[in-house]
Write a structure and sequence with these properties.
The complex is a heterodimer of chains A (449) and B (348). By secondary structure, chain A is mostly helical. Chain A is built from 15 helices and 6 strands. In chain A, the strands form 3 sheets. A two-stranded antiparallel ribbon of chain A has the order 1-2. In chain A, helix 2 runs antiparallel to helix 3, helix 3 packs antiparallel against helix 4 and helix 3 packs parallel to helix 8. The radius of gyration of chain A is 23 Å and the shape is globular. In chain A, 55% of the residues are buried. With 348 residues, chain B is mainly α. Chain B has one domain. In chain B, strands 1-2 form a two-stranded antiparallel sheet. Chain B is globular, with a radius of gyration of 20 Å. The N and C termini of chain B lie far apart (50 Å). The chains are: A mainly alpha (449), B mainly alpha (348). The interface between A and B is large, with 70 and 64 residues.
Chain lengths: 449, 348
């Protein structure tokens, strides 16, 4: 343990993990909510109904706060490539620089131009143009997600690059790099998961207003939109996108699949461990509840497929924190299943017109909104812990990527700084969003002119 | 190709400074030119809903540096580790002061964020000035190509230098007056009433201070980096840009005298573009100058990405940049014109 605490690479990793995890709490909500706002504004334009306009205004206010925190916590991410991961930048900057620059030039300029128009331009623009601003913003935020996921997909499954004489990577084929199959699958999985976050937030607010017996017309609109989108998105996260992602891991990162499942020995009829604790020292799962053949089927399509276990790979290729990886993956998959069940139930009750009177279900929907954030976070932990010990899978180790000129003390200092600053930021955000929810959608004035 | 990317990088940095510099300048001046909540709101509206679009130029410049000269980004950012995080935290503070400050209409809440915006803006201008001073003066690049650096050493400008010394502080002070004046000049053209009157006074004062400090920095640069001055005369582009800067300075003067606010602000932009452009042109192809040994200076040619990567980048950059400008033109059309009595954004 002492070694770990004095190892700068550990602190580099911890700081990046902390800042990116915190940052991503906000974009997943804005990417999810953006299309709700587009939908509400579009319906308002088509039907002329005031309730859609009110819904769009309230969610735009929440969106504005979330977007602001997403922007300010996003800037440190780009700069940490230089400050903390100088080795990585020197090695692969010629490749990943392309998409990081594209994110700024193509996505951020689009987003930042239209956020102000969306927030403050309702009185100054025609409803049609104002809707277009929302579409621009939603498109920009998803584009930004795509460029980041292409960058991450390159780290998971490098394509389109070549190695120069100096041993550094450079971009050889932009088309192949941007159409990395891993990026498509990851994008589909990640964006539907962001929609789950947005849908749960919308449904939770509907449940809250219903339980509090206020703004009932808005509440039932939120419940309807939130539960329908929530069910569809939760299903899509599992199938086909989650399934495709797992098959991608099985094909290109076999050892990671074995670690995610806590599978220590190779063989056919590979089982999925539903519950159980990985015991890495003894190389087994303690107290398992297993589903025989399921892993073979999910990964390769037949129950008898051979799935190689960790024993088939040399130890230095194993992900370096198998326990955390195993639990992250299982919590993600477990929560995903619960989301489908909860939303299916909510939709059944809604269709029977019983949802708004099922207080226990409304309570469940209201309290469920944090869990998609948790599921998204552990999903990303699965992806990133699984990639270890590699920074660029199979090519470049994480240890080599850190900035060697930065001392461990400096990193601890900035990490503590981020903890304090982000705590304050989180409190501010919650207070202000809480206030918008308290003021509610039936506010008389047009809040932003 | 390397030359082009060197130009694109500096173009993006300068664009960012012209656009965001005025936002920062207004942020720093806000408490001086606005005496009551209504006036302060007018300044905040002048900072406007587009401020994050300006900041994206900084993010974009970082991206371009990563694309074209990755080794420079790696060495400079890890060398300036703590200073960079200071800047990042101040950028966070500035951003939330603009965005969250208007959400509650309580006098104490507003006062707190007014102070946060003013201090973060002023400190950012000072730090960016010190950073610019560092780029001109040079950095202690060691034999591994790393530049681990202290906040300050002996306040001298040669050998093992630190972030802060007499020269970088001088450039920081110039930056404060210069971007303060830039922001004031914009406010004169955008505001009405007492805010405009006070901004005019502040603008005149700050421009005079900038002229004095500018001369001092010019002389100091002759002492610190004489090669930059001597190199200047062999670079026609740098001389043209200096003339452009002089033209800008005249336009500011004429604009203030004749009360032609737009002319003064255009002059202010021209002056900044000219001065920084001339500096960039004079320094080519050196991206980072070494104070320990000029031989270790980092040349753009030595650290550029592969030619092939640069060509690919150039193709999409040339498409993306005009589209980015188009978004701004479309979006800012709804916020055009001088700010009147009614607030742009009603209180929370």
């Amino acid at each position: 343990m002492n070694d770990l605490l004095t190892d700068p690479v550990f602190w580099h990793r911890l700081q990046f993990a902390f800042t990116v995890t915190y940052h991503y709490l906000f974009p997943q909500l804005t990417m999810g909510l953006a299309w709700f706002i587009v939908f509400f504004k579009w319906r308002a334009l088509r039907t002329g109904e005031e309730r859609y306009q009110k819904a769009a205004r309230l969610w735009t206010r929440v969106f504005g706060l979330t977007f602001a925190v997403g922007v300010v916590t996003g800037i440190p991410m780009e700069f940490q490539f230089g400050t903390n991961w100088g080795g990585f930048v020197k090695y692969a900057g010629g490749v990943i620089g392309q998409t990081l620059a594209m994110e700024g030039m193509i996505a951020f300029f689009l987003e930042s131009a239209f956020i102000g128009v969306l927030l403050y331009g309702e009185r100054r623009l025609s409803p049609r143009l104002h809707l277009l601003a929302a579409v621009g913003l939603a498109t920009g935020s998803w584009l930004s997600g795509y460029f980041i996921l292409v960058t991450n997909a390159f780290m998971q499954h490098p394509v389109g690059h070549a190695v120069g004489d100096d041993g550094k990577l450079y971009l050889n084929d932009l088309g192949a790099y941007l159409t990395n199959p891993w990026a498509f699958v990851e994008f589909a999985h990640n964006q539907t998961a962001a929609l789950v976050t947005g849908a749960f937030a919308v449904a939770a607010l509907g449940a809250f207003y219903t339980l509090a017996d206020r703004s009932r017309e808005q509440a039932s609109l939120y419940l309807r939109c939130g539960t329908i989108t929530g069910l569809v998105a939760a299903l899509l996260v599992a199938f086909p996108t989650g399934d495709a992602q797992a098959k991608m891991v099985a094909r290109h990162q076999e050892v990671v699949l074995a670690a995610m499942e806590g599978r220590f020995e190779s063989g056919p009829m590979a089982e999925i461990t539903l519950i159980g604790q990985p015991n890495v020292a003894e190389r087994r799962i303690d107290n398992p509840v297993k589903l025989p053949g399921a892993l073979s089927f999910l990964a390769y399509g037949t129950f008898h497929s051979e799935v190689r276990g960790l024993d088939a790979f040399p130890r230095e290729q194993w992900p370096d924190n198998i326990e955390l990886l195993y639990y992250s993956f299982h919590i993600m998959a477990g929560l995903g299943t619960v989301f489908i069940a909860l939303m299916a139930l909510a939709n059944v009750q809604r269709i029977r017109r019983r949802l708004e009177s099922s207080r226990w279900l409304l309570w469940a929907l209201m309290l469920a909104f944090p869990f998609p954030f948790i599921a998204n976070t552990v999903g990303w932990m699965t992806a990133e812990l699984g990639r270890q010990p590699w920074l660029v899978y199979g090519l470049f180790r994480t240890r080599e990527g850190a900035s060697c000129a930065v001392s461990q003390g400096n990193i601890v200092f900035t990490l503590i700084g981020f903890c304090g600053l982000y705590f304050v930021l989180g409190v501010l955000y919650l207070v202000l969003v809480g206030r918008e929810i308290g003021r509610g959608p039936d506010l008389q004035e047009v809040a932003h002119g | 190709m390397v030359e082009l990317w060197f130009a694109i990088f500096w173009l993006m940095v300068i664009t960012w400074l012209v656009l965001d510099g005025r936002t920062l300048g207004m942020g720093a001046l806000r408490l001086f030119v606005a005496a009551n909540p209504d006036e302060r709101r007018q300044v905040l509206d002048a900072i406007g809903p587009m401020w994050s679009w300006y900041e994206v130029w900084l993010v974009g410049a970082g991206g371009v540096l990563l694309l074209a000269f990755p080794a420079v980004l790696a060495a400079a950012f890890s060398g300036y580790y703590l200073a960079l995080f200071l800047i990042l935290w101040l950028l966070i503070l500035r951003g939330i002061a603009i965005e969250l400050g208007r959400h509650l209409d309580h006098p104490l809440w507003r006062s707190f964020w007014d102070l946060a915006l003013a201090s973060s803006s002023a400190l950012l201008i000072l730090l960016f000035g010190i950073a610019l001073g560092n780029v001109v003066r040079g950095v202690p690049i060691d034999s591994n190509g790393e530049l681990p650096m202290a906040f300050f050493t002996d306040f001298g400008v040669r050998g093992q230098v630190g972030l802060i010394d007499w020269y970088t502080l001088l450039v920081g002070a110039l930056n404060l007056t210069g971007f303060g004046a830039h922001g004031a000049t914009f406010l004169v053209s955008k505001s009405t009433g007492a805010v405009r009157d006070r901004s005019r006074v502040a603008g005149r004062l700050l421009w005079s201070a900038t002229a004095v400090l500018g001369l001092a920095v010019a002389v100091a640069t002759w002492i610190v980096r004489p090669d930059l001055w001597t190199g200047l005369w062999f670079r026609p582009l740098a001389i043209v840009l200096l003339l452009v800067a002089a033209f800008g300075a005249l336009a500011i003067r004429a604009g203030y005298r004749a009360g032609r606010d737009q002319l003064a602000f255009s002059g202010s932009c021209t002056l900044i573009v000219g001065l920084l452009g001339a500096r960039a042109a004079a320094s080519f192809p050196i991206l980072l100058y070494s104070t320990l040994d000029p031989e270790r200076s980092v040349s753009a040619y030595a650290v550029a990405s592969r030619h092939h990567s640069l060509v690919i980048g150039l193709v999409w950059w040339l498409i993306a940049a005009p589209i980015a400008l188009l978004w701004n033109v479309l979006a800012s059309r709804s916020f055009r014109g001088r700010l009147g009595q009614g607030p742009l954004v009603p209180p929370g």
